[in-house]
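Section 4.2 – Deliverable D4.2 (structural model, holo form)

The reporting period included a commitment to supply a predicted holo structure for the target in complex with NDP. Inputs used:
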Amino acid sequence: MTQATDYLATIQATVAKRDPHQPEFQEAVGNFLKTITPVFEAHPEYIKANILGRITEPERAIQFQVAWQDDAGNMQVNRGFRVQFNSAIGPYKGGLRFHPSVNLSIVKFLGFEQIFKNALTGLPIGGGKGGADFNPKGKSDAEIMRFCQSFMIELQRHIGLDLDVPAGDIGVGGREVGYLYGMYKRLRGAERGILTGKGLSYGGSLARPEATGYGLIYYTEAMLKENGKRLAGKKIVVSGAGNVATYAIEKAQAYGATVITASDSNGYVVDPTGIDVARLRRIKEVQRGRMSDYADVVPTATYYEGSVWDADLTYDVALPCATQNEIDATQAKRLIDAGVIAVAEGANMPSTPEAIAAYAQAGVYYGPAKAANAGGVAVSALEMSQDSRRMSDSFETVDGQLKQIMETLFAQSVAAAAEYGVPGDYMAGANIAGFTKVADAMFAQGW
Ligand code: NDP
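Output (structure tokens):
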């Protein structure tokens, strides 16, 4: 064992011992540590400064009660979180997730990933994440509003323009950000830059709703191009039917690919002619319906219960855009057998460690979440900049910046992987490029 491998093993053991009941957080740290050894071989000064000991422990983790009244007059109580993970390169930045599965482990895994993702964008933002174990499904608009208001009554004391700027994630879209911002404004006054993902009429950025999905496609095209291939003409399977999936489908089809699926937590549709994004958006965003409703109105589509990753389909590219650990080893093998040449992650940590190992073994090009889905937070940072300037940039300007950021971060991952002796390993490259930026900032700032 070298000093570096010794140090990394100690970090993993410390995380496991300190947080034994946080499997998602341990998984995210484990995936990261596996790829980072060459950096510590080259920089023993990071070991002396215990950079990893500090980076794996959030600077601050806040848990709070969210009490709200449902339409029947009953008082409900949920648990809210904000984890402010690392501020070495800028204010904490990361979304809020409202989903019944949310707990400290999930918020910490997301916040940990966010540190390196944000660094990769090249913009001055630190890593954070938050949310609540609230289930928005089946709730009325008034219930959603009361929940968001109560959530913000507590959260407002922990955020600030130069401190922490939240955004959306699963279960938190434009409607929720609007209610959260409305309550913030009543309590603290108008500070447009306090949340991103806002509506256009009160400080939002054009192209923010599209950013994660479009960014995923810009990244995927760059990854394929690096290997002499293109998206045009490819058959794609997408999971999810929310913000990320919808705009990934739209942009992939604009590049000449055919996206044959979309899914939710109940099931998926297969449409060999390509998913109709306008219909999908109407069902999901306006009617707040289910994927089964899509098959009812699109004659070329068939609806199936279960996971799209268990489907018996032939395709070229897989874009998981729903949730963590949605592809396990068996499903990874299935998609490899189906002929997949590339997997790029719109969701955060959608592939289990075993699935990632299977991709590597099969020579599948693998774009990890922290690089491939960084477009959303990148445009959030551009929204912060527009809010400070009190200006609105055009769609073309923001989309152009997004494309450039995604291509640059891919190129940096390629370069970092080559520099540290793991050429072609885009996961290692992303981890190394993101980590060295944060580590250098921490080192320079002392402790
Ligand atoms: P949305 O809430 O808009 O959509 C989530 C989609 O995933 C829905 O179709 C949902 O189905 C499905 N889904 C959620 N949980 C599960 C589950 N346990 N099993 C199967 N399907 C599920 O969220 P987003 O599109 O914003 O986020 C999707 C992923 O992308 C998340 O991992 C998020 O962290 C990541 N991400 C999002 C960014 C953003 O800008 N929004 C930025 C970067 C990453 P159902 O309606 O049935 O719940």
